[in-house]
Amino acid sequence: MATLNITYNGTSADYPGQVPAELSDHEIKRMAAEVVQNGEIKGLWLKHLPRSAFDGFVVDRIHSAHGGLRIYLRPKVPFGA
Amino acid sequence: MKIVFCGVGALGSTAAMLCRSLGAELVFIDFDRVETKNLAAQAFVKQSLGKNKAEALKLQLQNFYGLKCEAFGVRIESTNVEVLCQSADLLVDCFDNAQSRKLLSDYARRAQKKLVHAALAADGSFGLVRWDGNFVPDPEDVAGQATCEGGAHLPFIGLLSASLARVIQDYVSKKAEHEVMVSLNGASWT
């Protein structure tokens, strides 16, 4: 299992439950759109969020220094300048 | 300790200014020149207009703070990356394109150099500071996509640059390798 963090429109928050670690990127994006639409994440409730909102996003899987897998769904970050 | 900043645009120039008290040797690499539009979101002053960015940053740190730095006004390529980076104890990637980030990452892995990346979303609402093991460069949505050039994103660039400077400080002082994610609702260690 893993902790899912979602960043959308400048707001970042953890999904309160655990998610299966083996979810594909596509499944994570689909699930994220559903939980944000349903208001399941405190501070990140967008009732009319399009299902495709996370299509261009990136999924990172990182083993936390504190143990456990964290999955980050985030916008692309192409720039340094 | 020698810290080499690769790319001194918005994030690189601002983070370098915040690293001026670390007691480390600072080196700047950037082929670009300071233009009027850069004054809105980068650490350059009006007197630096027209100068190479790496040279301008070196002169500003020398003139304002008496700090001696090195500057290389060239583009990092496969033919010169080793010469430019081989003496680095820490490489800092603040490039604005995936190709240069990958070139630097490949070199760091080959030469076993420590490399930390800082990266910003196009809309200035999200950014990351990550060590090379956890970083994959994101391509632009469209080649040559406009970067955060206007002043609108300056506070966020400041926040992300400060996070990068703090990560560098923790590495210099404790060899700690922290990572940070910055969004509009704050910065958090990841």
Word description of this protein:
The complex is a heterodimer of chains A (81) and B (190). In chain A, 16% of the residues lie in helices and 35% in strands. With 81 residues, chain A is of the alpha+beta class. Chain A has a 4-stranded mixed beta sheet, covered by helices on one side. In chain A, a hairpin with a 2-residue loop joins strand 1 and strand 2. The longest helix of chain A has 13 residues, at 25-37. The radius of gyration of chain A is 12 Å and the shape is globular. The termini of chain A are far apart. The model of chain A has no long low-confidence stretch (mean pLDDT 92). Chain B has 190 residues and is an alpha/beta fold. Helices cover 33% and strands 20% of the residues of chain B. Chain B has 5 helices and 8 strands, in the order βαβαβαβαββαββ. Chain B has helices spanning 10-18, 53-65, 81-85, 98-111, 154-174; strands at residues 2-6, 25-29, 70-72, 90-93, 114-120, 126-131, 180-183, 186-189. In chain B, helix 1 links the parallel strand 1 (2-6) and strand 2. In chain B, helix 1 crosses helix 5. Chain B starts with a strand and ends with a strand. The A-B interface holds A 5, 7, 9-13, 43, 56, 58, 60, 62, 64, 70, 72, 74-81 and B 7-12, 42, 93-98, 101, 118-123, 125-128, 134, 136-141, 145, 147-148, 181, 183-186, 188, 190.
Brief overview:
Chain A has 81 residues and is of the alpha+beta class. Chain A has one helix at residues 25-37; strands at 2-8, 11-19, 58-63, 69-74. Chain A is built from one helix and four strands; from the N terminus they run E-E-H-E-E.
